[in-house]
């Protein structure tokens, strides 16, 4: 139930400290706050726009209420007008958009006065459709005084067919996403020739989000764009914007293939931020293997969102999963109805998979203030200007410190103070962080990890490039050192054919369709209401086996449905509306084989290895759990085909003598290895830009390839994503933190806060907590200092 009811939107806006004090009233509530961090307000520092920025643009900016730029905005614009690619990596709401818009608008205004031809053009890339739509709105408002000189238009999968020709012919600021650039614009480059010929700037917004396999694909898409621009005689400058990130210039260079200047000093003012770490209490319930169970982050976040809505505090609750966002919104609406029947309609869910008109309506309602609370996935994390928010609740650590600060920065965007609350899940990393605040507040954000040379990424883009313009040896320098070695394989596979000095794409199908740039594993599965045939939304192919299998509970717009049948041949899940008192969780089994060992380091008698592996995974059953408590009600078998993945992994082995030294006997060995595997997967996001759903693991008391007890941690994407490689290079720190997290947990025999995993295919059995601590300690005794 909500506490401390106040009329929504009543009175003066409370301070973030006062909001937190109200949330923490009561002995049980106050004990849940493990740490409070106060970030003081910061005074801003101004500068002047570069002389090359047109006075009309400066006047338009002043009309928007901005008299002078912050120093980092002026420095970014200065590099841009000099023709130098630049990345601005400053905090949320620091005005990064204006930093690149000033030179872009000025150049477009210059181009509109050209006596002949189309004039200058600019391209804007966003990782999400929501961000592109939001940026178009912002550009239209800012450029309104410039008349028709600036013609912004969104070109994505939601753009009606009848509008697309106008965009190609007349828009000079095209806002799109990497998906549409890859599959729509680049393959049709002759129709975009006048736009590409005049392309002066390419803006890549929220570039820190381009990591792992997705980032590697985007890096190759950018190289294809640069190649076509060179063909049409243009050489655009790249302007990148990022949340605070480690080595942003280096990451931007890997993304674009060009030298990039970095601007990292944030000179904008900032209101006070109060950041609370919140640990849900233990319940009287027991989970798998009798482990103690904490109250779920989902239930706790719904309580906080309810209380904040009742107080009239405008809030976004960030949730890691689509189902979690729906569930939090649903629980919050039910509880608000008990307080005031007008309130439930002012809280909603927002996630990917919604139809375009649903997303746009929610964005407008949040922007206008009609919504008091929103339970959102990371689809809303990136850059959408939601001014006026008072608070952010983060349901579970989002995987990286960069994402944590990005989400926390959604509140206080008008310069006022803000509250952020991180609600810990029952998970090793979350538990570690709420009790080790220095790991969040005293550490730099992570380095963005991506690998453009991944052959599973590079090969399809070489084919796509050849279909756009035949490839020559001169192109290899652009696409990377691995390109030349892949060409004979692509020829042997019948994908490319060499004629004279160039390689050609000779197949009828589209080469761009070879690349699955978001790693979704195939066509999305359509979720269809069986009785009406109505399309509710879509689910990524890679997630279909675990989320819309037969019997799964599927949530959409606050309504729950049960999957009647998953048709993998037609990529359709047929559902019927129902209200079961439970949720569902899929279970799977995994086997792994070593294909090639690239690197091997001795850790005393142990070995730390990195290389290529093949993983075979199969969803075999699902559990039904009570909605609020998570109590297991039963298990149902499933008959789904196995999936095979060739990827990259880090693994370590131990010897019989080391097991003896660690006092791990044969009966404990399987549980000790299994526990170490679970906890190390949970802790890796602290050292690489991933979360536990990007990676997987297998532990075996006697693996047939190593002939020793072995623990594997692998990238969950074909060809690898760079996470396992990062784990290999930081193994000593990573496994030390893993051992410490297990040892520090107060439970007796293991729980979700230390060694149990929510995605374990074996029902978290066997697990041996003390054996894992001793085993990791013995392994680390042999670790070289430079490892």
From TrEMBL:
It comes from Streptomyces auratus AGR0001. One of its GO terms (biological process) is interstrand cross-link repair. Residues 304-456 form the Helicase C-terminal domain. InterPro entries: DEAD/DEAH_box_helicase_dom, Helicase_ATP-bd, Helicase_C-like, Helicase_put_actinobac, HRQ1_WHD, MZB, P-loop_NTPase. Residues 77-263 form the Helicase ATP-binding domain. One of its GO terms (molecular function) is ATP binding. SUPFAM superfamilies: P-loop containing nucleoside triphosphate hydrolases. Keywords: ATP-binding, Helicase, Hydrolase, Nucleotide-binding. CDD domains: DEXHc_Hrq1-like, SF2_C_Hrq. This is DEAD/DEAH box helicase.
């Amino acid at each position: 139930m909500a506490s401390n009811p106040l009329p929504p939107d009543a009175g003066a806006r409370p301070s973030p400290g006062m909001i937190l004090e109200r949330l923490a009233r009561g002995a049980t509530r106050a004990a849940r706050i493990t740490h409070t961090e106060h970030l003081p307000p910061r005074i801003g520092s101004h500068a002047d726009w570069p002389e090359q920025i047109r006075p009309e643009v400066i006047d338009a900016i002043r009309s928007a209420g901005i008299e002078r730029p912050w120093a980092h905005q002026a420095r970014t614009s200065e590099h841009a007008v000099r023709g130098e690619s630049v990345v601005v990596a400053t905090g949320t709401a620091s005005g990064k958009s204006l930093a690149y818009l000033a030179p872009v608008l000025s150049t477009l205004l210059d181009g509109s006065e050209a006596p002949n031809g189309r004039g200058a053009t600019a391209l804007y890339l966003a990782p999400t459709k929501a961000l592109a739509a939001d940026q178009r709105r912002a550009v239209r408002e800012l450029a309104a005084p410039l008349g028709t000189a600036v013609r912004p238009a969104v070109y994505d999968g939601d753009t009606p067919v009848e509008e697309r020709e106008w965009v190609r012919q007349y828009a000079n600021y095209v806002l799109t996403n990497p998906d549409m650039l890859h599959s729509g614009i680049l393959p049709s480059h002759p129709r975009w020739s006048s736009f590409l010929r005049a392309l002066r700037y390419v803006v890549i917004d929220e570039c820190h989000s381009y990591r792992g396999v997705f980032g590697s694909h985007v890096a190759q898409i950018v190289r294809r764009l640069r190649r076509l621009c060179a063909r049409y005689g243009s050489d655009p400058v790249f302007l990148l914007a990022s949340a605070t990130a480690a080595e942003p210039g280096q990451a931007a260079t890997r993304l674009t293939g060009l030298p990039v200047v970095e601007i990292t000093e944030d000179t904008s003012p900032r209101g006070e931020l109060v950041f609370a770490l919140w640990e849900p209490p233990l319940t009287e319930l027991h989970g798998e293997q009798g482990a103690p169970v904490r109250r779920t982050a989902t239930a706790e976040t719904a309580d906080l969102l309810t209380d904040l809505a009742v107080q009239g505090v405008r809030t976004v609750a960030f949730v890691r999963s689509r189902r979690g966002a729906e569930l939090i919104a649903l629980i919050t609406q039910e509880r608000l109805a008990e307080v005031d029947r007008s309130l439930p309609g002012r809280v909603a869910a927002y996630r990917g998979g919604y139809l375009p008109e649903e997303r746009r309506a929610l964005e407008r309602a949040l922007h206008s203030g009609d919504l008091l609370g929103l339970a959102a996935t990371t689809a809303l994390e990136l850059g959408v200007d939601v001014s006026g928010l008072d608070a952010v609740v983060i349901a579970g650590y989002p995987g990286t410190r960069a994402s944590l600060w990005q989400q926390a920065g959604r509140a206080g965007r008008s310069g006022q103070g803000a509250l952020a609350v991180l609600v810990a899940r029952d998970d090793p990393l979350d538990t570690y962080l709420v009790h080790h605040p220095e790991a969040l507040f005293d550490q730099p954000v992570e380095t963005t990890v991506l690998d453009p040379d991944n052959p599973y990424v590079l090969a399809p883009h070489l084919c796509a490039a050849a279909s756009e313009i035949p490839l020559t040896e001169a192109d290899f320098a652009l696409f990377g050192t691995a390109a030349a070695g892949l060409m004979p394989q692509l020829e042997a596979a019948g994908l490319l054919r060499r004629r004279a000095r160039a390689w050609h794409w000779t197949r009828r199908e589209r080469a761009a369709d070879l690349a699955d740039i978001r790693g979704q594993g195939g066509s999305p599965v359509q979720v269809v209401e069986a009785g009406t045939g109505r399309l509710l939304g879509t689910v990524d192919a890679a997630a279909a086996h675990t989320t819309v299998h037969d019997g799964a509970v599927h949530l959409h717009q606050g309504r729950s449905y049960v999957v009647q049948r998953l048709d993998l041949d037609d990529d359709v899940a047929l559902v019927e509306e129902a209200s079961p008192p439970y949720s569902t969780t899929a279970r799977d089994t995994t086997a792994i084989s070593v294909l090639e060992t690239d690197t091997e380091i001795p850790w005393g008698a142990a070995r730390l290895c990195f290389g290529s592996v093949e993983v075979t995974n199969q969803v075999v059953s699902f559990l039904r759990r009570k909605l609020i408590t998570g109590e297991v009600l039963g298990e149902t078998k499933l008959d789904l085909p196995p999936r095979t993945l060739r990827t990259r992994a880090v693994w370590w082995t131990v010897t019989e003598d080391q097991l003896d030294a660690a006092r791990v006997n044969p009966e404990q060995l399987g549980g000790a290895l299994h526990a170490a595997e679970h906890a190390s997967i949970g802790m890796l996001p602290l050292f690489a830009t991933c979360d536990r759903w990007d990676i997987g693991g297998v532990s075996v008391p006697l693996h047939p390839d190593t002939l020793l007890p072995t623990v594997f941690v692998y990238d969950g994407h074909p060809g690898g994503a760079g996470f396992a490689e990062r784990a290999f290079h930081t193994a000593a720190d990573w496994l030390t933190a893993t051992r410490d997290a297990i040892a520090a947990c107060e439970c007796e025999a293991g729980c979700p806060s230390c060694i149990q995993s929510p995605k374990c295919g074996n029902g978290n059995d066997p697990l041996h907590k003390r054996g894992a601590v001793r085993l990791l300690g013995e392994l680390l005794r042999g670790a070289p200092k430079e490892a």
